[in-house]
């Protein structure tokens, strides 16, 4: 089996379908065999198998061929580790790939034609950026820079973990500027592209043109600057470009995955230059921000999926459970939209759990049923022994149902398993309790608030 060709196939797919679709569909796949003209690929769920084989099979085959492998057929099998439950019901209908691929190259926004920057994605604007506590400072600083005026933070240095919105904010600045100051020469590119241009200029003996071009911009934005660490001549050139622009009072915006001082193999003088201006970080998202992002994404996809209907509690569930990064969250939603078009009816919590089983497993947060019971009992002022005991009075039965609901939505325990932890109740009793709470969340705002509060308390 040739791992390299699979690596190449993945790279090509990443380029052609964009980071988000890649994370949603390709990242979870595993190549398990490449023999006799057949590529065998494992998918984590049945739903994924159906979707990927319908939408990506031919592309995968072609990329294998380009990578020098003879592949006549791509076979998809569900990983044996995956749950045996069928994903949703009803015969899958042929569907179009949900195209919210960030194939930015097709969406080139107005940017100076003679500048060798990366294309801007017009969807990445301030309007589509959801602001919450973890990113409010970065957002405010980015806005200030985009509004222009006296260059007050130079450079603006944005840093944070994977998929927390650095690239989004940079595109937003560039998009906003192209509206406010259409005459300004804004150059956005990744540090990798900077290096590539530089090496090319050296090779073609056009280094003067290179310098001139980079020094002629009004705003320079370099994404993922950590990439130039350890690349000596590129660092050197970057340093000179940086100084020349700052001297001319031109704005610079830089992003990286960590703070300047923490980038290994970056020259000291560059580290210190990068800290001249304003250094702000994007913190990991919190529950509110994740929920806000999900709600915004659902709204913005209404036109594309007019019949989309998502049961109350599903988005809250995703916001609670998928805490890794926004890209994974978006990937989950992309898959859910695709799923909705397949099943053609409201997406319930159970369907979401099936369809996203692999993502949920990967970001499993270790809240236990016992933690939930304790918090719920405390919140309602009842005894833990009563919560799991046989009493049926309303003041106890309702909190018990809330605890059942939270146990189902915050852990990966099965219904029989939850039943055992609630004093040996039958799984149908648990299911009934969950359904009841789902109903009440939609009709009883006090109870909805209680559930929300409990979620947050347990999220800590
Ligand atoms: N606050 C937010 N509001 C709306 N969308 C967001 C927000 N934060 C991130 N996203 C979305 O999440 C995805 C990942 O964000 P982005 O590409 O900006 O991450 P990044 O920090 O640059 O990560 P990386 O270092 O992996 O490139 C994008 O599709 C982006 O639009």
Quick summary of this structure?
The chain is an alpha/beta fold and 460 residues long. Helix content is 53%, strand content 10%.
The number of distinct helices, counting runs of at least 4 residues, comes to: 20
**What is the fold-level CATH name, i.e. the topology of the largest domain?**
Rossmann fold
Order of helices and strands: HEEHHEHEHEHHEHEHEHHHHHHHHHHH
Strand neighbour order, sheet with most strands: 5-6-7-4-8
For the biggest sheet, the summary is: 5 strands, parallel
Uncertain regions: pLDDT < 50 for 5+ in a row?
83-113
CATH architecture of the largest domain: 3-Layer(aba) Sandwich
Which ions, cofactors or small ligands are bound in this entry? adenosine-5'-triphosphate
CATH class of the largest domain: Alpha Beta
Shape category: globular
Integer tally of domains: 4
Query: If you average the pLDDT, what whole number results?
Result: 85
Number of strands: 8
Strand % is 5-15%
Radius of gyration: 25 Å
Distance between the termini: 44 Å
Going by helix content, strand content and strand pairing, the class is alpha/beta
Give the CATH H-level superfamily of the largest domain. Answer: P-loop containing nucleotide triphosphate hydrolases
Family: Belongs to the DnaA family.
Pfam family, one: Bac_DnaA
Subcellular location: Cytoplasm
InterPro entries: AAA+_ATPase, Chromosome_initiator_DnaA, Chromosome_initiator_DnaA-like, Chromosome_initiator_DnaA_CS, DnaA_C, DnaA_dom, DnaA_N_dom, DnaA_N_sf
